[in-house]
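Record type: ASSEMBLY
Status: queued
Input:
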Amino acid sequence: MVFAPTPQLTVTVDQPNDHPELHLHPGGQGVWQARMVISLGVDVVLCAALGGEIGQVLEPLLVSEGVDLKVVVRDSGSGGYVHDRREGSRQEIADVPGQPLSRHEIDELYNLALGEGLRASVSILSGPNEPWLVPADLYRRFAADLGANGGRVVVDLSGDHLGSVLESGVFFLKVSHEELIRDGRARSDDTEELTRAMYELHAGGAETVVVSRADQPALALIDGELFQVEMPRLEAADPRGAGDSMTAGVAAVVARGGDIRTAIRTGAAAGALNVTRHGLGTGRLDSITGLVDRVRLVPADSRQQERTTPDELAGRVVER
Amino acid sequence: MVFAPTPQLTVTVDQPNDHPELHLHPGGQGVWQARMVISLGVDVVLCAALGGEIGQVLEPLLVSEGVDLKVVVRDSGSGGYVHDRREGSRQEIADVPGQPLSRHEIDELYNLALGEGLRASVSILSGPNEPWLVPADLYRRFAADLGANGGRVVVDLSGDHLGSVLESGVFFLKVSHEELIRDGRARSDDTEELTRAMYELHAGGAETVVVSRADQPALALIDGELFQVEMPRLEAADPRGAGDSMTAGVAAVVARGGDIRTAIRTGAAAGALNVTRHGLGTGRLDSITGLVDRVRLVPADSRQQERTTPDELAGRVVER
Amino acid sequence: MTVRVLITNDDGIAAPGIQALAWAAQQRGLDVVVAAPMEEASGTSAAMSAMERDGRVVVNDHPLPDLAGVPAYGVAGSPGFITLIALHGAFGPPPSVVLSGVNRGANAGRAVLHSGTVGAAFTAATNGCRAMAVSLDVLSAGEATAASGGVAVDAAARVRDAERHWGTAARVALDLLPRLTSAPMESVLNVNTPDLPHGQLRGVRRGTLASFGQVQMTVAESGHGFVRTSLEEPGQAAQPGTDVALLAAGYASVTAIRAVSEATDIDLTGLDEQP
Amino acid sequence: MTVRVLITNDDGIAAPGIQALAWAAQQRGLDVVVAAPMEEASGTSAAMSAMERDGRVVVNDHPLPDLAGVPAYGVAGSPGFITLIALHGAFGPPPSVVLSGVNRGANAGRAVLHSGTVGAAFTAATNGCRAMAVSLDVLSAGEATAASGGVAVDAAARVRDAERHWGTAARVALDLLPRLTSAPMESVLNVNTPDLPHGQLRGVRRGTLASFGQVQMTVAESGHGFVRTSLEEPGQAAQPGTDVALLAAGYASVTAIRAVSEATDIDLTGLDEQP
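Status: finished
Output:
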C-alpha cells in the first residue's frame, strides 16, 4: 500500500527537439514511489485524496499508471505545478500546493488507507508536498496502527513528519543528508556526524536507516551495523527521484519476502538507473535486476575490530 | 556559574494597600535561578549580555543581588516588561523582548561564560526570554564543552533549546508537563505518558530528569528509576518560579558536593516555599532546610517486581 | 593490613542494598570502595559491556548517604565490567575481596548463571580475587506464615524498600568473610537471606544448587523503562537441602560455587580421525 | 528421528558466521531453526535481557540467503535469553542441540565466562540441552607465517568478512556433533578455529582452558554505535596445551567445559556458631 495524501498534477514544458511539448503527469512523492514499485513487478494499492478540477484529471492519469487507486474526494482542489525544462534545467513557473486536508478528509483518508494497509505486508507512507498540508501526528498514528498489526512501514520523510512517525517506529527509513542537516539531526555531512545521526534515528525507532549523500555512496544502518552502498556510477540525466527509487525498491523486495540487504541493493540499483532517465519513478525491471549484483554493501565502520587488555580498559576510566 | 544570555528589567505596578507601588527588578530565568542559588548559601557567577538604557539599569540591580556579575556589553538594548498586579493577578502592559544576540555578541558571551563555567563545578544554562533571541545550537556547544571538561550542566529548557542541549548531554533537566506536551514529547499529562517521555529524555542525554506537574507531585527519574516527589502542600501566592527554585536548589546542593536525591528534595522544598512569596527566586535558607526532611522520594514505578517463568517468557514472543 | 573490599551490585549504585553492604563493611573496619552500574543491570550475568564517551568509560562520583570518606562511583557498565576494571586499578588499589549485593531478590539454583550479582563475583574469582554474592529474597514469605502463600506475595509487593532487612543480609555476608578468605581462590560464596530481622533467621546453612531456582532480570519495555522480574521455574516442590528450600524454610543459605570449569568425563580422543 | 538444532550467536542475525553454521547444519540433514539477536551482542555472557513492545518480545522474520525453508528470526534479546525461550518452545518444537556461532573472533581461556557465544551454550546446558560454542579467530595469523606477527594482524584487519573461512569452523563443529550428543548433558564443547581453509588446518585437538585467554566484547561509544573489541590478557607466552596455544599453532581447539558448578573443597560447617 502506498499512502499518498496529496498527489499533484505536474505540467512540464519541454523542447527535446524543434518543437516544445506539454507533459501532464501525476506527481508527488507517493506517486513516484508507487510507479517504481510497479516497475519492479509488485502490485500497488494507492490511497489518495483528490479534489476539484485537478483531482478530476489526476484520477484517470493515476489509474493508467497501473495502480489500484482508492480515492477520498476532497472539497477543495488538489495542487499542481508547472515546470519549464526547455533550457535544459527545470524552471518553476507556478506551484499550487493546495489546501490542507480538512479534519473530515483526514479521517476518511485514514480509515481508507488503514484498511488497505492492514491487508498489505508493506506500506509506504509518503509525505505531503508541503508539510502543512497534512498534520505530522497522522503519521505517528498510522505507523502505530500498522506496526501493531504486523505491517511493515517504509518512509522517506523529514521534519516533523519524520519525528512523528519515529515515535511509533518504522521498518525502513530513507532520508538525505541535506534533510538530516536541515532538521538539526546532523551538524555536517561528514561521515562520522551522519553515522551518529543514523544511530540516533535507529535508537529513536527506525529499524533500518539509509542516508543518501548526493555524490557520495549512501550509508545504510542494518541490524545495528553500518555499510556503504557501493555501485557502478551512471551519468545522471535528472538527479531527482533516486531517493524515491530506493524507498520503492526496498518496499517491493520486502513485499516479495526478500531480505533487507537485497532490498537495499535493489533500491540502490533502481535509483542508479532512474537518474539516467527523465521520467521520475521509471526503470526497467531487467536492467535493475542486472545491476543488483553489482551493488555491494561494504562495512563502513572503521572501528570494527580492536584489541584491548583489562589494564587498558581500566585506564580508560574518566570521572566527570 | 549561571548563564543568563538576556536578562530583562521587570517593572511591576502593585497596590498591596492604599497606594500603588512601582517595583524595578532584574528578571529572566537565569536571574531568578541565580537569586535562589544565593539564598541557599552558594556563590554565583552570573554571565550575561546587557545593553542600552535598560542594560545600564540592570547592571547595578544585578550586582546588588549579590551575584559576581560578568557582562558582555551589547550594541542593542536589553529587553524588559511592565506588569500590573493591582487587581491581584498579573496583567501584562508591555513586553519588549529585545534584539537577537549578534554573531559577535554570541561569541564574546560564549567565551566569557565558558571560561567561568570551566572553573565552576556546576553550571546552570538558562534560556533566553524568547527562543529566537539566542540560537539553540549555542546550548549544544556549551554543554559539550563543559561536559567534556568535567562540568555538570543543569538546565530548565524546552523546545529547540532543549533538543540541542540534550545532544551533548546534561547532568540535570527540569521541564514541565506543559512543555513536554507543547514540544510533542508527550501526548498527554497522564503519568504513563509522561514517564515514557522522561525515559526518552534520559535516553536522549539527560542523566536526571524532573518533570513538574502543576498541582500533582513532580516526577523524578534518578539513576533510571522513577520517583514521585511528595511534600507538604503550601498555599501558593504566586505559582510561577517553583521550577526555577527546583533547578537552583539542585545546582546549589550538587555544587556543595551533595547527592542528587538530597539535591532534588532541596529543590522541591525551595520551590514549595517560593510559591508562598511574591518575589521570584526568594526563599529563606532555614525554612528550606526545615522542609527538606519532609520531602520524600517515593518509588513511582508500579511495575517494579514481577514473577515469571521461562515458559511464560517463551509465550510472550510475537512476530511483526 | 586492612583488607581492601570492592562493593558492587547489579541493581545500580542508587539501590538500597549496596548502601547496607558498604555500611556493614565499613563498620567491620574494612577499606571500602564502591563502584556499581549507574542503572539497573539485573540479569546481566558476567557480561562485559560499557558505555564510553570520547573513548573514556563514563564514571560519576556518587557519594553514598552516611558513608563519608568511602569513595563511591556510578559507572556506565555492567557489574562484570566494573569488577574487571576495578581489579586492574580503575578505582584505586585493586581490592582483594569483592562483595556483590545486597541484591533486590534471591539468586538461587543453577539460574544464578544469569545473575549480574553472581556474574560480578565470578568475574572476580576468574581473575584471582575472592568474592561473595549476597541477595535478599524480597518475595519471601517474610513474617507471614508459610501457609499464607499468595497473600504474603501481595504483601511483599507493597513493602517499601526502606522497610526491608538489607542489614540482615549484609550481616550474614560479613560473618562469612573469614570462611571466604580461607577458601580456594576460584570459589565464590553465594549467599541468600530471607527478608527478616536477623534475630528471626532460623540459622545459616550450606545449600546445594537447586536445579533451576530463581534469578532476577530486567526486561526493557519500549518507552516505559524496564520491568523487574524474578525468573523462576515453578511447579516443583523445592528439593530438600537446596538453597531454594533453605530460603523458603527461613534460613539464610550459603552455596560454594565455581564459574567455568573443565569437564573431564567426555571422550575427545582421536579427533583427527573423524570423517 | 531428525535432530532439531537451534542455531544462535552473539554477533547478530545478520552476521556471516551464523549463515555458514546454519548452512552446514542443513547440509547434514538436521532440522534447523535460527534465532539470534537483532543486533551485535558480543560479551553479553549468559545475560537475560530482552526488549518488549506492549508486553511482547519483539521478533522479526529474518530469512537467511540460500536457506529457503529454514525458519530464521531476529530477536530483541540476548543470546542467553533467546536460547532459554527457544528451549521453552518460542520458535517451534524445542531443539535437542544448540549450536552457537560461528563467532567473529576467538573465545578461549577462562575469559569465555564473558562470551555471549559461550553464554548461549551454557544456558542450553543448564536447561538440559546439549550445546556447542563455535568461534573463528579472525585475528589469527591466517596464511601469514607465525613470524610475521604484527603484519599479519594488520592484514587480518583488512580482510573482508566474505573472504573469511567461516565454513572451516562450521565443518569442524559439525564433525564434533557425535561427540557432543554422547557427552554428559551438562558439558559444553567450546570450539575455536583459525581463519584458514579446512585443508590447511594442522588438525583438531583437545585444549585446556588458558588462564585468561581472549573474549569478544562490544563497547558502546556515545553517538557512534559500538566498537568491537577483542579483550585479551597479553604479555605472557601461551601455556602449552591450552586452547590459546593450539589456535596460535594452527590447530582447531576443542575444550569441554561446564557452567556454574558446586565447590566441595571449602569448609562451611558449623555456620550458626559464628559470632
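Annotation: The longest helix of chain B spans residues 103-119.
Annotation: The domain at 2-304 of chain B is CATH 3.40.1190.20 (UDP-N-acetylmuramoyl-L-alanine:D-glutamate ligase).
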